[in-house]
Prior knowledge:
Layout: E1 2-7, H1 15-29, E2 36-45, E3 57-65, E4 71-77, H2 80-129, H3 132-139, H4 144-159, H5 170-184, H6 194-207, H7 220-226, H8 240-245, H9 261-283, H10 287-298, H11 303-310, H12 314-331, H13 334-341, H14 344-354
Parallel strand pairs: 1-2
Antiparallel strand pairs: 2-3, 3-4
Helix pairs in contact: 1-2, 2-3, 4-5, 4-6, 4-9, 5-6, 9-13, 10-11, 10-12, 11-12
Amino acid sequence: MQIQVSTDSQTVGSAELTRRIEALVESALDHFSDRITRVEVFLSDENSSQKSGEKDKRCVMEARVAGLQPIAVSHQCSTLDQALAGAADTLQKTLKRTLRRMDSLFKRRVRARTEFTTVDPLLQRGAEVGNQEEFLTRLRPLLGHLREHATRELRMLETNELLSEGQVTATDLLNEMTTRAWLRFAERPREMPLDLWLTNLLDETLDEKIQPESRTKKSLGQHAEEVHSEELLQVDDQQWWVWLLGDDETITLGDTISSGESAAAAEQFDARELKDRMHALLGVLPKAQRQAFVLHVLEAYELFEIAMLQNRPETEVQIDIENARNTLRKQLPADALSRAAAALPAAAAADSTGDSTEKT
């Protein structure tokens, strides 16, 4: 793990300060050192003309982790030592939360892939002998892995008024998808993983449910202001918006709100409202871009798999994912992200006790 330290013109750096920072970072991030390639630390004096100002020393730490966007946090205090300690603590907690989510998602994907791979030859046999009952009997137990995807896609379309609420259910989609899978199984590209092929069938089925006249979508700016959170259902109970956008200085654990019942209610509202906005904004992205983003960030598919599905180069898929991420970051208001981030310590605690009961 490489540690790089830099300062602004108002902050005096030294070899001793660099050694102290390196020791602090190594101690705080030792548990993740094999996954971090580099940590950059930047110290600055935000109030250099008024040396008596409060919280004028600022520390920004950015960690580079394989497979993730750079994770950056900041902390501001009256002394450099306090700013350093606060940033190191925040980065440690952020990495713990982020990597736990990534690992949990990866394990769920591996488990699903194993189950689909095991059933694949049995489905192949059922299709070859024309035994539809056997085919569907083998396939139906695996549909739980696809239900969350179906539910999320429906919420995006309902939020953007491309479908009315309840017009199509996840069960409707899954039933129709299984019928298509039976009819088209012989045509399936054998190099494509079964779960990815079924996900694509699901998206194709849903796309055909949208009326042609409903495909004209409102602008991203309009949707950011017009989402009515009380009218929508939540897709899952994870605060996934912070992870998929990438943590930065506008989304830190240092952001707090007052304690008490009213604060808890505010946290729940912020979380629900922000998730609804995420669905609205995801729903108006170009289809290929949205599909690439959702499959990679929320469902842990590899870039090469998405490229295979979309029949285009991995580089284009990667660009679309980053463009989608940047669009979401620009459209989501920073104040809403900061308020919702205040609920993250509780969410992290819940994650730590809920890893063994992942949803399928």
